[in-house]
Amino acid sequence: MTIEFNVEGMSCQHCVSAVTNAIRERDAAANVRVDLAAGKVAVESSASVETLKDAIDDAGYTVVAVANQ
Question: Which CATH architecture has domain 2-68?
Answer without folding.
Answer: 2-Layer Sandwich (3.30)
